[in-house]
Design brief:
The protein is built from six helices and six strands, in the order H-E-E-E-E-H-E-E-H-H-H-H. The protein is of the alpha+beta class. It has a single domain, classed as 2-Layer Sandwich (Yope Regulator, Chain: A). Strands 1-2-3-4-6-5 form a six-stranded antiparallel β-sheet. Helix 1 packs across helix 3. It is globular. The protein starts with 25 loop residues before the first helix and ends with a helix.
């Protein structure tokens, strides 16, 4: 006990409470995208929520449309436009999406209002930084690559995957940067 008889600090066995994370300014996210060498569309703001559109490539699936959504006090959502609206008997598609939700624990598959399958990942403000954003984007692209054979029927008429020849991903550095943290998806 201190000399004056008062207890200093939290009671024994209690854990300190983390202060509320500071809101993330949109310029910070734009800076992270620049540092990751990723080109993004114009910033769109509405009701305090900010969004950017990106078009990125996996190693096998190209031109993947991703919308980043920032709620400055809550975090960032990476929302992948996984496929066009599903036109088949939904039962089979829903089973696939549910199975994928089980197989890929850091992302969430769902169906948008227009029937389009989506893939999203969330980064809470307290964890948001350049590397968590880059990791989430690389993981999403790697999952798109991994599921290419199973989702080809949604993406192209007849399910025929186009021959991209020797085309290289425009964001190859992003994939290489996070390959060691995603060995099961990026093959490192």
């Amino acid at each position: 006990m201190p000399p004056n008889g008062s207890d200093i600090g939290p009671p024994r066995g209690s854990r300190p409470v983390d202060p509320a994370p500071q809101p993330i300014p949109p310029t910070t996210v734009e800076g992270w995208l620049t540092e990751l060498d990723l080109i993004h569309g114009e910033r769109v703001e509405r009701d305090g929520i900010v969004a950017w559109d990106l078009e990125l490539d996996g190693r096998r699936r190209f031109d993947v449309r991703i919308t980043l959504i920032l709620d400055p006090s809550l975090g960032i959502i990476s929302w992948v436009h996984f496929a066009p609206p599903i036109g088949d008997g939904f039962r089979k598609s829903y089973r696939m999406l549910l199975r994928w939700n089980d197989e890929f624990p850091f992302v969430k598959f769902s169906i948008a209002e227009d029937g389009r399958p989506t893939l999203s990942s969330e980064i809470p403000t307290r964890f948001a930084d350049r590397d968590e954003l880059g990791l989430a984007l690389a993981r999403s692209l790697a999952i798109c690559d991994s599921l290419l054979p199973e989702s080809a029927g949604w993406l192209w008429i007849g399910g025929r995957i186009p021959d991209h020849g020797a085309r290289r991903p425009r964001n190859e550095a992003l994939l290489a940067r996070y390959a060691e943290r995603l060995p099961e998806l990026l093959g490192s």
